[in-house]
Structures are given as C-alpha cells and as structure tokens.
Amino acid sequence: MATTTKTAERARPTYFPQLAAERLDIALCRASAAVARAADAHATEEGLGVGQHLVLQMLDAVGPCSQQTLSEELRIDRSVMVSVCDDLEREGFVRRERNPRDRRSYAVTITDSGRRRLAEAQTSIPAFLGDTFHPLTPEERAQLGMLLGKLLGTGA
Fold first, then answer.
1. 46 pLDDT exceeds 80?
2. Domains of the chain, residue spans
3. Which residue of 59, 87, 106, 150 has the lowest C-beta tally within 10 Å?
4. Are strands 94-99 and 102-110 parallel, antiparallel or unpaired?
5. Residues 6+ apart with CB under 8 A from 91
6. Sheet (strand 65-66) strand order
7. Where are the alpha helices (DSSP H) in the chain?
8. How far apart are CA 55 and CA 108, in angstroms?
9. Per-residue pLDDT for 8 more than 70?
10. What pTM does this model have?
11. How many Cβ atoms from other residues are within 10 Å of residue 87's Cβ?
C-alpha cells in the first residue's frame, strides 16, 4: 500500500505548475517542445516535413531565393536546409538554378507540382492548429501570437 501511495504522489504534477509560473523560460521551452512534437507527428501523417512545408510556403509567398536566405528567414540550420532542398528537389517540388547575380549560390524556385503539394498540405493546418492549441480561446491564441512576435522581435 505504501508503494501505491508513493506512486500516486509522483503521478500528480505538483511542482511543475509552480516552476512554470516562476520560470517563464522553462514553461516556454516545454510548450515549444510539445508543439514541435505535435508538428512533427502531423508532418509525418502528411508526408511533408515541417521544414519542407515552410520552404514551400516561403517560396510561394516571396518567390525564388537562395538557400541562405531560406535558412536565415525560416531559422533552419544551413546544413539542414541543404537536405530539405535536396528532398524537395528530388520530389520535383522545387528547382535549384545558379543565381545569375551570384554564380556561387543557387536560386530555389517552387514548381507547379510544389504549389499543388503545398495547397494539399495547407488544408490540414487549421485542424492541426485547432487540436494543438485547443486549450486556448481564439482571443488567447491571437494574444499568444502577438506576445511571441514581441519576444522574437518580429512585431507580429
């Protein structure tokens, strides 16, 4: 019986809520990790990785750009970006061509196939976000977006 009581005591979260209230950095890291896991699981179901989705979305929004620009804007490590672009190019979703203004870099361009794939993937995003952020009201989600924008220095 003593073992059952100790196990039950350990199962109840009592310290972390206090810690999260005192240490916003810890709370934000844990929340970020939980959202990242959910995004990875969703991406696996969709068959399009998170990084791949972001690259297609940016290329569709801003047009051709270098891998370096994609890496910087999307905050994806350069070596990871090479792999993401390799995979997207292999699938026919992007095209890499020498940048005519700088022959040392490549301009990455979304293809028509990439636009179609992006459109398919975008259809499941609202449900994913709804499931992931279900504890928050729409107003709280908007406020969270604004606060995160401030923290990230984007003013969003």
1. yes
2. 14-46
3. 150
4. antiparallel
5. 113, 117
6. 65-66, 102-110, 94-99
7. 2-11, 16-22, 24-46, 50-62, 67-74, 78-90, 112-122, 125-132, 138-152
8. 9
9. no
10. 0.77
11. 16
